[in-house]
């Protein structure tokens, strides 16, 4: 999907024109994957644009940085203000937000701790990535082992795992891949968490299976609980996907997306539980449900 360029990107304390937001070819992160990122969304609401769960995303950014040994040279309040400044400067009513913290240019080598840490915030208009229903395949690639690669950090290096699995799925004619971990349990998709619905119970893999602790995953769990649905984080086998009454994926970039089939086993369209969660999630992110207004951070005048 082509990127829709905006006017400016925030880099290390200042807004710069989109085309001038550059890094050196010898930046450490480009060679060794020493970067962490966040994906957040701004949605149009009756009161103007608002960022959904901004503080939760920034909290995870700082946790990820600590895990891989990056010191972010800005306080959370500074990045919060910079995020809102960038959204407003680009005039978005709704957009995707990409926070990136990476080791820059200074020296080469795996242990180049002396490289400066660069922080950027970009925003652009981006539709939901997976459409209204997806066909999944189980990837031959296994999810990174948390004991080898810190899957609890949203870091750039481990995303090569997702890139390979996504390419395999697309080449085989599917929309998305689901990855199992080394023990054969379901982990997650390439950039989204997995939920099954069976007998009215929501289940999603835990972080111990290699799944990222998703902000949207947490949101769905809270919305489900408010709807009176039992919600579990538990290990899932491949067969659990085949025998689910319903299945959906969720993530900031995708929203909540029904799964139509897994490995050519049909699940049908969105079931009643998935459809209800899509409705309440849409109301929450667009400010139509007062119960979840605390998740919204205004991002400028309408």
Protein architecture, described:
- The structure is a single chain.
- The chain has 302 residues and is α+β, with helices and mostly antiparallel strands.
- It folds into 2 domains: 8-124, 2-Layer Sandwich (D-amino Acid Aminotransferase, Chain A, domain 1); 134-285, D-amino Acid Aminotransferase, subunit A, domain 2 (D-amino Acid Aminotransferase, Chain A, domain 2, Alpha-Beta Barrel).
- The chain is built from 7 helices and 16 strands.
- It has helices at residues 28-32, 54-68, 76-89, 159-171, 215-226, 238-242, 272-285, and strands spanning 8-11, 14-17, 35-45, 48-52, 95-103, 117-124, 134-142, 176-180, 186-189, 193-198, 201-204, 231-233, 246-251, 255-262, 265-266, 296-298.
- Strands 7, 8, 9, 10, 11, 12, 13, 14 and 15 form a 9-stranded mixed sheet that branches.
- The longest helix has 15 residues, at 54-68.
- The relative contact order is 0.16.
């Amino acid at each position: 999907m082509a990127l829709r360029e905006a006017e400016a990107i925030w880099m290390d304390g200042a807004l710069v024109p989109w085309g001038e937001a550059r890094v050196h070819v010898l930046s450490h992160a480009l060679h060794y994957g020493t970067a962490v990122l966040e994906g957040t969304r701004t949605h149009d609401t009756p009161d103007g644009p608002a960022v959904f769960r901004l503080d939760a995303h920034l909290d995870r950014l700082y946790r990820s940085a600590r895990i891989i040994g990056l010191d972010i040279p800005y306080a959370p309040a500074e990045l919060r203000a910079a995020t809102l400044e960038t959204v407003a400067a680009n005039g978005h009513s709704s957009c995707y937000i990409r926070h990136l913290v990476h080791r820059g240019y200074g020296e080469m080598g795996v242990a180049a701790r002396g490289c400066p840490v660069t922080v950027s915030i970009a925003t652009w208009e981006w539709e939901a990535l997976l459409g209204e229903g997806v066909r999944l395949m189980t990837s031959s690639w296994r999810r990174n082992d948390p004991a080898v690669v810190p899957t609890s950090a949203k870091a750039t290096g481990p995303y090569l795992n997702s890139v390979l699995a996504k390419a395999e799925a697309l080449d085989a004619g599917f929309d998305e891949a689901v990855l199992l971990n080394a023990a054969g349990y379901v982990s997650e998709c390439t950039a989204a968490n997995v939920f099954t619905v069976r007998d009215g119970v929501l289940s999603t893999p835990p972080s111990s299976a290699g799944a990222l602790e998703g902000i949207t995953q947490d949101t769905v769990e809270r919305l489900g609980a408010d709807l009176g649905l039992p919600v579990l984080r538990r290990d899932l086998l491949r067969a659990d996907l085949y025998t689910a009454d319903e299945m959906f994926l969720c993530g900031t970039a995708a929203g909540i997306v029904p799964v139509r089939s897994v490995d050519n086993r049909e699940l049908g369209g969105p079931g009643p539980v998935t459809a209800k969660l899509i409705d309440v999630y849409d109301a929450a992110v667009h400010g139509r449900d007062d119960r979840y207004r605390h998740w919204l951070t205004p991002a400028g005048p309408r």
